[in-house]
Amino acid sequence: MFKDLVFYGFSIVLIAAALGVITARNPVHAALLLVLAFFTAAGIWVLLKAEFLAISLVLVYVGAVMVLFLFVVMMLDVNLDKLREGFWKNSWLGMTVGVAMLLEMAFLLMSPAFSAPEPANPASAQPGYSNIKELGRLIYTEYAFPFELAALILLVAIVAAIALTLRGRKDAKSQDPSRQVRVKARDRLRIVQMPAVPRDGAPDKQGEPK
């Protein structure tokens, strides 16, 4: 009973924080609400006896990713008015995707896989059981191909993000190593011939000879 109350409490906080992320007007507040959502999700994973995933979520997402998000949001001059343009114009698409995701989750929760009875002697109740060891065994044995496929997809996403955002600045000065290698001596030094001016007849600042 206590676990059920804790689960529903974490779930309510998680849903409220997730709604706050997409409805908050201030991006800093949205990032902080996302941190709260990550913490509550980690709490739910602890209830499911997945301590390693909970700690990984807190260390990786809250400790690294969200700190980076906060640095970017607070250091850049984000034009909020420009970001809000077209929000209601595309709201129908967001609502459609949200309803589709809710239907998929309801279909999965009502499937027989989620209503199966728990085993009398679960593996987690055995002495010396380690969920970290079991997670590693499953990832590198039964789910090795999906794990490598997910890593490949993330690598492609990283390369695509760099390719889309990397732009050469026209006002920035940079060196071209190929031009530096091909340079000749005559390209480095230019001799300019100027007529000699006598010392006594050198013009002063007003243009009159001394």
Keywords:
210 residues, 9 helices, elongated, Four Helix Bundle (Hemerythrin (Met), subunit A), mainly alpha
- DSSP strand count: 0
CATH class term of the domain at 1-79: Mainly Alpha
Indicate the overall shape.
Answer: elongated
Query: How do the helices and strands follow one another from N- to C-terminus?
Result: HHHHHHHHH
Which architecture of the domain at 1-79 does the CATH hierarchy give at level 2? Up-down Bundle
Our measurement of the CA-to-CA distance between the termini, rounded to an integer number of angstroms, reads 107 Å
What is the percent of helical residues? 55-70%
- Rg, please? 32 Å
Under CATH, the topology of the domain at 1-79 can be stated as: Four Helix Bundle (Hemerythrin (Met), subunit A)
Helix count equals 9
Q: Can you walk through the features of this model?
A:
The chain has 210 residues and is mostly helical. Among the domains are: 79 residues, Four Helix Bundle (Hemerythrin (Met), subunit A) (Up-down Bundle), CATH 1.20.120; 36 residues. Helices cover 64% and strands 0% of the residues. Helix 1 runs antiparallel to helix 2. The longest helix has 25 residues.
Question: What's this, in brief?
Answer:
This protein has 210 residues and is mainly α. It contains nine helices and no strands.
